[in-house]
Structures are given as structure tokens and as C-alpha cells.
Amino acid sequence: MWITGASTGIGRELALQLATSGVQIAAASRSAAGLAGLHANIHPFPLDVTDAEGVYQPAPLGQEQRMS
């Protein structure tokens, strides 16, 4: 599941609840450091959804292997 705004507030709590239930989470946040080490099922992706060009950049190589 992909969650944006996952480093704070409702997004963070949702990511934690789902990850604890066994769901693999792609967690997008401007503050990827805030997601590091949060849970083994949470995979942080630095992303600023207000940056129109950045949204279309591919995820760093290797991210898809960690999610499978």
C-alpha cells in the first residue's frame, strides 16, 4: 500500500497500524528520515507531492525488491 504524508500525524499512525498487521507499506514523505527504522514493513520513499517534476521520478533502484 502506498501512503503519502507518512512521517507524521494520521499518515504515520495509519502506516504503523497497517505495517503491524503485516501489510507492506510504501511510505512517501518529504521527511524520509522520520520513517527510517520505523517498522520492517515500512519502506520509506522521499517524495514531495508539491514538486510536480519530482513526483514522476522513478524510485531508487532496488526499492521494488524490498517490497516483494
What can you see in these coordinates?
- The protein is α/β, with parallel strands linked by helices and 68 residues long.
- It has one domain (2-67).
- It contains three helices and three strands.
- It has a three-stranded parallel β-sheet.
- The radius of gyration is 11 Å and the shape is elongated.
- The relative contact order is 0.20.
- The mean pLDDT is 81.
Which short descriptors sum up this protein?
68 residues, alpha/beta, three-stranded parallel sheet, 3 strands, 31% helix, elongated
Instruction: Give the total of domains.
Output: 1
Percent of residues in beta strands:
15-25%
The N- and C-terminal alpha carbons lie at a distance of: 12 Å
| Structural class by SSE content | alpha/beta
Main pleated-sheet profile: 3 strands, parallel
The SSE string, one letter per element, is EHEEHH
Q: Give the strand order of the largest sheet, numbering strands 1, 2, ... along the chain.
A: 1-2-3
What ranges have pLDDT less than 50 throughout 5 or more consecutive residues? none
In helices, the fraction of residues equals 25-40%
* Total strand segments: 3
Using only C-alpha atoms, the radius of gyration works out to: 11 Å
Count up the helices: 3
